[in-house]
Amino acid sequence: MTKTPELIDTIAELRSRVRKAKSEGKKVGFVPTMGALHEGHLSLVRASTAECDATVVSIYVNPTQFGRGEDFDRYPRTLPRDIELLTPLGVDWVFAPSDAEMYPEGFDTWVTVGKVAEPWEGACRPGHFRGVATVVLKLFTMVEPDIAYFGEKDYQQLAVVRRMTIDLNLPVEIRGCPIVREPDGLAMSSRNQYLDEQQRQEALVLSQSLKLASDMVARGETDAAQIIAEMERHIRSARSARIDYVAIVDPETFESVGRVDRPVQALLAVRIGDTRLIDNARLTPPKT
Question: What percent of the chain has pLDDT over 70?
Fold first, then answer.
């Protein structure tokens, strides 16, 4: 179905539209984004429109999840193009609020998720998950979706949202959707457009190192430290790469593991030049 989504910029108008749809018995899906849409985002939208009767996509570059010196000011803002990309997909509403609508004067209430939000991204980007959890909770109260769709590329963020949803008894199902990759393996990201031609090639060390880890586990390697060392060695072969972290963790607690004797998650964050990229993959040892 080709239809131009209705663009909404106020909470009151959004609630009016969604509550009318729900009063008619429609199941509402929600895809929160910061815009600069790519095929990864669009895969979430397709999942929603396939499963739900009505779909809301939010496009909001949330200032509270960016730290000092990060890329808030230069983050791509491409609303007209985003709407063009959504038009063939059957999206009902695009919610694109202003900062004043989301954080009116005097705003001073924050959501802080516990242990799952502390390591890795939480340690590298202090305050990031507080901003994420706060804006997602606010969006959930505005949209009141039945199902919300998140990409697994931001694997720890997905876990943070799930923890918050469970702990606060929120009446929304959280769907994690697979990472979408470029043909050469690079995980799709709005930040990929920051990369110049050489950096774009060097960025392939992220997905290649995950493949290296998967191959080592498939061959029977169980020493997490040895796997991490090989991943880091490969990443450092890219001239402009600087590692924030490479980790192998329990997929639910995000605690480091010493041995890969059950399914675990490999996580990495790497700066290619000035561009910070993240990626992850499940590592599953062969059955014995």
Answer: 100
Mean pLDDT calculated for residue range 47-55? 98
Strands (E) across the chain are located at 6-8, 28-33, 54-59, 93-95, 147-151, 173-177, 241-249, 264-272, 275-283
- Residue spans of the domains in the chain: they are 6-177, 190-282
CA-closest candidate to residue 47, choices 139, 173, 160: 173
Three-state SS at 189 = coil
Q: What is the pLDDT of residues 62-90, one digit of tens each?
A: 999 999 999 999 999 999 999 999 999 99
Second-level CATH architecture of 190-282: 2-Layer Sandwich (3.30)
**Residue labelled with tokens 């791509």:** 76
Express the helix, strand and coil content of the chain in percent, nearest 5 each.
40, 20, 40
Q: Which of the following is catalytic: 38, 41, 128, 234?
A: 41
Cα distance between residue 227 and residue 268, in whole Å: 13
Query: Which of helix, strand or coil describes residue 236?
Result: coil
| Architecture of the structural domain at 6-177 | 3-Layer(aba) Sandwich (3.40)
* The pLDDT value given to residue 77: 97
User: 234 catalytic, yes or no?
Assistant: no
Residues 94, 6: contact at Cβ < 8 Å? yes
Residue 225's CB: how many other CB atoms inside 10 A?
11
The structure tokens listed for 279 are 């990626």
> Does the pLDDT of residue 1 top 90, yes or no?
no
Predicted confidence (pLDDT) per residue in 171-201, tens digit:
999 999 999 999 999 999 999 999 999 999 9
H helical segments located in the chain? 11-23, 39-51, 79-86, 99-102, 121-124, 128-143, 155-167, 197-202, 204-218, 224-235
pLDDT digits (tens, 9 = 90+) for 251-265: 999 999 999 999 999
